[in-house]
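ok trying this again, last paste got cut off
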Amino acid sequence: MYLENQPILQKLYMLAVWISRLAIVNVLWIIFTIFGLGIFGFGPATAAMSSVISRWISSDQSFSVFRHFTNVYRNQFLKTNLIFLSSALIGAVLVYNYFFIQANNLPFFYSVITIVMGMTHLLISITIIPLYINNHVSILELFKTSALFVIGYPLNSLVIVLAISGLILIQLFMPGLLFFFSGSAITFVVVLRIQKVLEKTRAIQAELSDGLSLN
């Protein structure tokens, strides 16, 4: 009752709540990534973290964080590993192409194209697993959806790049935060932007549907 009449205290309280939430889920993310031997744990742990954060953003608090995290980790282990390893393979090919171009002194134009493709792929890789939590589709369809999300919403992609760059800089200057916010803070930004885009898309679809029904 006291906080209802204190908007500043309300905001500070919610900030404290979110800081504790992100710290908890980040620790789980690190533990389960290590549990999966790093390379095999990163994908499912990121999916589990994305799912937990997505539910929190949707104001859903009626669930056990640990139970939900472990359920998503276990159920999505194979699929998210395929997504992560496919993305890593594409990234490795792009890196190889770049060094091949440099080693053979090919025209600068090819280097620019490869760098642009690499940056686009990096954004796709960052958003693809959080997108998968909201769209359980085939891997090929998921890559198409993620590419559309990155390329089709350039302003949204810019917001993600700026936010992630800022978070990385803060954590580089304050390395003690890495253990508590290295993955969760970035995932929070990505999931939040994905939900904003999905809400906007649903609103447009609803308007179009209403317009068609009136006609």
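PB: full thing came through this time. The mean pLDDT is 86.
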